[in-house]
Amino acid sequence: MSQDKVNEYKKDKAVRKQTIAKQKRNRSIIITVVSIAALALSIFGGYHFGHVAGYQKGYDEAIALAEMFYEQGDDTVYVDEDGNEVTFDEDITEEEE
Fold it and tell me: What pTM, to 2 d.p., does this model score?
């Protein structure tokens, strides 16, 4: 009877060891999957809100600026290399002469 108890104890110990190893493996898999998911989510969020949304905002601002220049028409004043104001209503041939 004593040998039967020893054999049963060894079997139980082997089963416990397998169970603990399986739990460790499952815990490691879960931690890895959650970490990869968090990394992917942060990369996507950074790309979307930093690049795509920022690009769209810059694009919208550029369009608004272009519309503003277009609406101003002939009243738009530019400065040439010498610092002189140049408007579109001036004739280019007058400046060359």
Answer: 0.48
Assign 77 to helix, strand or coil.
strand
Beta carbons of 92 and 78 less than 8 angstroms apart = no
For 66, the token pair is 């272009």
Nearest to 90 by CA among 74, 71, 79, 73: 74
pLDDT per position as a tens digit, 38-53: 988 888 887 777 666 6
What pLDDT, in 10s, does the model give residues 11-33?
999 999 999 999 999 999 999 99
Rounded to whole angstroms, the Cα distance separating 76 from 97 reads 23
Give all strands (DSSP E) within 19-97, no chain letters: 77-79, 85-87
Residue 41 three-state SS:
helix
| Alpha carbon distance 86, 21 (integer Å) | 81
Cα 85 from Cα 88, distance rounded (Å): 10
* Distance from chain centroid for Cα 16: 45
